[in-house]
């Protein structure tokens, strides 16, 4: 098991680091009393958890002083662990606290700089023991994510770092509010107006065959797949974790469903992490249901 203890200065980015670890499959626990680390490590072993991370900082108050005793226990019992320490300059930390309008936990009624100085002294020993120290002074969130992925996500192939959802929908029921990319395929001939196809949906072979044989569809799919191959690696580089690609037709039952299925199949064949959802495919059966 890979076991990471995340610690460091308040405002240095522990929250974002934890989010990044969660995104690459770590079981994360924030602000667990250090005295419980031995029990937690035993539970992880017993539960077959392969990757776990604990966030430890001075928010634990007097309990933080128990950290070194717990680390000694782990060492004596041959339990492997790593310490990730997040640091930042005083100037940047003061700016972050002022922007967030938060007080420093060690100086709730005084100057932020006083709290930072006190915290540095308190964390000096754990910093000296750290396996990895990341100075986030000049980092944007995407830069910190990239660092975390580099150190702890080496088993994650780049194509799997972004989760893609291909979502079909009907424009008459509204555009999904969580969409990142929205495409209108109402320019493709509509199977709804062909009597023998109307009763089917885009998951059924007759409609799928009709939609995919249209010249407009063939041209659209070709250009669309080419665009996604360009966009996805750049989204990953920027630290994006989820991409919602919404494909819409009039009712969300025929054209959008068939085309969304085709796009999802192509992404899976290319090795990307993709899944399919059809929001309005059964809308006629769910009249009045509220849509996002």
From TrEMBL:
Residues that, per the record, bind GTP: 57-60
- Annotated residues for binding of ATP: 8-15
| Domain called RapZ C-terminal: residue spans | 163-281
Top-rank lineage group of the source organism: Bacteria
An example Gene Ontology molecular-function term: GTP binding
Q: List the SUPFAM superfamilies.
A: P-loop containing nucleoside triphosphate hydrolases
**What is the designated name of this protein?**
GlmZ(SRNA)-inactivating NTPase
Looking at the record, the residues that make up the RapZ-like N-terminal domain are 1-151
* InterPro entries in the record: P-loop_NTPase, RapZ-like, RapZ-like_N, RapZ_C
Q: Which organism is it from?
A: Clostridium vincentii
Keywords tagged on the record: ATP-binding, GTP-binding, Nucleotide-binding
């Amino acid at each position: 098991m890979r076991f990471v203890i995340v610690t460091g200065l308040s405002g240095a980015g522990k929250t974002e680091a934890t989010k990044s670890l969660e995104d690459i499959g770590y079981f994360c626990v924030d602000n667990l009393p250090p005295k419980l680390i031995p029990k937690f490590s035993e539970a992880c072993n017993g539960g077959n958890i392969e990757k776990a991370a604990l966030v430890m900082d001075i928010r634990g108050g007097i309990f933080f002083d128990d950290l070194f005793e717990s680390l000694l226990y782990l060492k004596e019992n041959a339990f492997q662990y790593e310490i990730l320490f997040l640091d930042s300059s005083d100037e940047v930390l003061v700016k972050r606290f002022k922007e967030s309008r938060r007080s420093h936990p060690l100086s709730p009624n005084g100057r932020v700089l006083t709290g930072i100085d006190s915290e540095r002294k308190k964390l000096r020993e754990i910093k000296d023991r750290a396996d990895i120290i990341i100075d986030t002074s000049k980092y944007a969130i995407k830069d910190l994510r990239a660092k975390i992925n580099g150190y702890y996500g080496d088993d994650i192939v780049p194509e799997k770092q972004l989760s893609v959802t291909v979502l079909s929908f009907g424009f008459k029921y509204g555009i999904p509010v969580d969409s990142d990319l929205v495409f209108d395929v109402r320019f493709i001939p509509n199977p709804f107006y062909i009597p023998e196809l109307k009763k089917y949906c885009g998951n059924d072979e007759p409609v799928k065959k009709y939609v995919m044989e249209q010249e407009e569809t063939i041209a659209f799919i070709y250009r669309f797949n080419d665009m996604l191959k360009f966009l996805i690696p750049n989204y990953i580089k920027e630290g994006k974790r989820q991409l919602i690609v919404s494909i819409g037709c009039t009712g969300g039952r025929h054209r959008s469903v068939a085309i969304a299925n085709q796009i999802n199949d192509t992404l899976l064949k290319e090795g990307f992490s993709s899944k399919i959802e059809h929001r309005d495919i059964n809308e006629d059966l769910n009249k009045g249901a509220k849509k996002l």
